[in-house]
Amino acid sequence: MTTVQHPLPRPAPARSHSPFTVVDEITRHCLDPREPETVHIEVHLPHPPHPERLRSAFLDALGRHPRILMREAPGPWYRRRYEWELTGRPDTDDVVTFLPPGPDALPLARARALAQAPPLSLSPPIRLEVIGSVLVLVINHTALDGPACLRILATAAEIYGGRDNSPATGATPARPEPHPRLQPPSSGFGPVARVAAGSPGAPGNGMLVADLPVPRRPAEAPYTVNDQLLVATARMIAEWNRERGSGLRPLRITMPVDDRPRGADMPIGNGTRLVEVPYGLDELGEDTVALLRRTAERTRALKSLPRPQLGHGATLLTAPVVPVTLRAALTRRLRRVAAPWTSTTLLSNIGRVPYPLDFGDGVGRAGAVWFSAPARMPRGLTVTTASTGGRLHLALRWSGALLGPRDGEHLRELFEKHLDATAEEGGSA
To answer: What is the spatial distance between Cα 278 and Cα 20, in angstroms, rounded to a whole number?
Structure first.
């Protein structure tokens, strides 16, 4: 089922404009209708919410975070910036829709989440589909990211259920203190490994979700679960490529880092910065514990350093010196030229979901939360994880130009194997 959005008549309120951030602009320049830039969040509740009550709570939550009520402002071709126009209220009456349950309802909602981005021309650039006790939130990633919209869902849960949904793990993620002996490793300037092609599937993105145990680690371990996920991802791709006879090259994994507070004052938008974690060919063959320790040192050093969201080059590329249409053409050309140097894959680990997502009596608290990030070429594969209640919710998302559903299943098997290896103290590759 496809939801058609109908504009609502509304008065013309006073407008407020804000320029696109670096992330917003780069994403806007590189949009490809064949692979929409969407983020999908899937929340599983014990019981279905009441439709009108949930709709009211979600719309109220949007009002409490007015930065989400925005659309792309029109402008002439020679403008120097794209701008967001804050609207104060939704442009459509279809922000929340309720779909009849059935065996195909959830798979079809997932497929829509990957194939149909909410338009930037209507406020807000998100939509919420409810299938029984499952909430599927679809986000246009040009405007917003997953953690920001998870904050919106937490506010909606609090309004709906009347229970405190404050973050359970602290209001602000701790940034590691710089260590004098820990220097960020050089990613190098040579081409890195690409994910080897499998059996290409349907156009657009495909996705597989899985529920796994959070990997064990010793209480005194210097590495984190995130480090375990990085090692599992690197070794998953290395083994996948070896099986297909792909040439051996170093790997680089892009990792989003989010330093924003998690409370009600969390800035809404695209707020993560990207760092790249490199792996040399010799390192992937190291003892598992040694590789985990090496990864922990690297991620600690990378997280501790202040850095523009997409690096200094992107900041320079988006400087409003020439018309935005000229910058768009240049950005697209540079993206094609730089494809061999683009990181191998992206691992986005939300970590333990910071909010209870408790909708109160009759509905209950979320038992599983999945995220998925866009998987356009040249990467063609993203790995996204979150955890609740000691379970790890894994989403593998891929470009249909590179992989197909059976490839996704095999990649999940490889990921699970190498993640299990990180939980075995003293295990080796």
So the answer is: 30
Nearest C-alpha neighbor of 190 from the set 338, 375, 310, 345: 338
Report the C-alpha gap between 309 and 301 in whole angstroms: 16
Distances (CA, A) of 5 to 32, 72, 118, 233, 260: 21, 16, 9, 38, 32
- Please, how many CA atoms are within 13 Å of residue 76, restricted to the half-sphere of its CB? 4
pTM: 0.92
**Which residues contact residue 131 at a Cβ distance below 8 angstroms, ignoring those fewer than 6 apart?**
99, 101, 105, 106, 109
Residues 6+ apart with CB under 8 A from 426: 287, 288, 289
d(CA 143, CA 25): 9
Residue 3 three-state SS? coil
CA 39/CA 374 separation, integer angstroms: 6
Q: What is the pLDDT along the chain (429 residues), one digit of tens a residue?
A: 334 344 433 434 445 899 999 999 999 999 998 999 999 999 999 999 999 999 999 999 999 999 999 999 999 999 999 999 999 999 999 999 999 999 999 999 999 999 999 999 999 999 999 999 999 999 999 999 999 999 999 999 999 999 999 997 655 565 566 554 544 455 456 789 999 999 999 999 999 999 999 999 998 899 999 999 999 999 999 999 999 998 788 999 999 999 999 999 999 999 999 999 999 989 998 999 999 999 999 999 998 887 767 777 788 788 888 999 999 999 999 889 988 889 999 999 999 999 999 999 999 999 999 999 999 999 999 999 999 999 999 999 999 999 999 999 999 999 999 999 999 754 443
Phi, psi dihedral angles at 328 (to 5 degrees) = -65, -45
